[in-house]
Amino acid sequence: MMPLINFTEPLAILTALALFVLVLFLGRETKKSIFLAIMLGVFLLIIAGHTIEFSIVDEIEIQNIYARCITVDFVFILLSFMSYLWIDDIESKTGKKKSIDDSLNWFWSKV
Fold first, then answer.
1. What is the pTM (predicted TM-score) of this model?
2. Is 6 exposed, middle or buried (0-12, 13-18, 19+ CB in 10 A)?
3. How far apart, in whole angstroms, are the C-alpha atoms of residue 62 and residue 67?
4. Could you tell me the sign of the dihedral formed by the alpha carbons of 60, 71, 14, 6, in that order?
5. What angle do CA 76, 18, 88 make, to 5 degrees?
6. Looking at the predicted structure, is the pLDDT value of residue 44 above 80?
7. Residue 65 in contact with residue 2, Cβ under 8 Å?
8. Which of 3, 21, 40, 70 makes the best surface tag, with the fewest CB within 10 Å?
9. Residue-averaged pLDDT of the chain
């Protein structure tokens, strides 16, 4: 059984990356972080599915494919989370909402 969304194929990665960039652009233009929250949720569901399928499959070759898919899933989750924090910060500054903390300050101070 092969993964439904196979992130070992370059075309699948490019498609997911293009969709990610489009959603990021939409979130930045509308200044709404909900779009990135949905994208983060989708990637979390995908990694959950890949992990469940990884635990079911017994063949080593297919497990290696799932392991690579899970690695790419983690990268997309990291990108989605960082983008969500960025757009959420823009949304709170634009809407003059009181923010509990500067969500990205911990990241930019280390860079």
1. 0.84
2. middle
3. 9
4. positive
5. 60
6. yes
7. yes
8. 21
9. 87
- Amino acid residing at 36: L
pLDDT tens profile 61-101:
989 999 999 999 999 999 999 999 888 888 888 877 765 55
For tokens 């290696």, the residue is: 64
Compute the distance between CA of residue 25 and CA of residue 94 in angstroms, rounded to an integer.
16
Amino acid letter, 89: D
Which helix (H) or strand (E) segment is 1 a member of?
A: none
Using alpha carbons, select from 77, 95, 109, 99 the residue that is nearest to residue 31.
95
Structure tokens at 25: 């652009």
Q: How far apart are the two ends of the chain, measured CA to CA in Å?
A: 42
DSSP 100: S
Half-sphere exposure in the Cβ direction for 49 (13 Å, CA):
15
- Phi/psi at 98 (nearest 5 deg)? -75, 125
